[in-house]
Amino acid sequence: MTERFKLVTETAQRCLASWSNKDKVRFHLWNPNGIMAKRRASDDRIRDLVDRGFAKTGALLAYGSLCNYHTSKLLDLALKGRVSHHEAHYYVKQIEREIASADAFIASLTV
To answer: With helix as H, strand as E and coil as C, how does 77-104 read?
Structure first.
């Protein structure tokens, strides 16, 4: 494992503008501070609500782990040779929107 890869996927606290688009995708996929770590936490909260009976199983499709189109596209980008800025930025922003939507759903149940 190279030092750069280790920095991007393990030790970096935030995504830096000077990184390549591929490094930005790797950060968001595998770094504990990336968007996928936030996504997994959101998925866990939704799954917990479904398991405890506060939400129907359809919440997993709408907000949880089964709502994974943009997540799989971000993973596809990590496997590509070249990654455009638009692709990397777009999928990260869409996942952020999905997390915000799930958070709003969770807030509506806990009020």
So the answer is: HHHCCCCCHHHHHHHHHHHHHHHHHHHH
CA distance 76 to 58: 26
Tokens of 104: 């709003």
Q: What are the residue boundaries of the structural domains of the chain, listed by start? A: 21-110
Using H for helix, E for strand and C for coil, what is the string for the chain? CCHHHHHHHHHCCCCCCCCCHHHHHHHHHHCCCCHHHHHHHHHHHHHHHHHCCCCCCHHHHHCCCCCCHHHHHHHHHHHCCCCCHHHHHHHHHHHHHHHHHHHHHHHHHHC
pTM score: 0.91
pLDDT in tens, 25-58: 999 999 999 999 999 999 999 999 999 999 999 9
**Angle at 97 (CA atoms; ends 10, 51), nearest 5 degrees:** 80
* pLDDT digit string, tens, across residues 66-90: 889 999 999 999 999 999 999 999 9
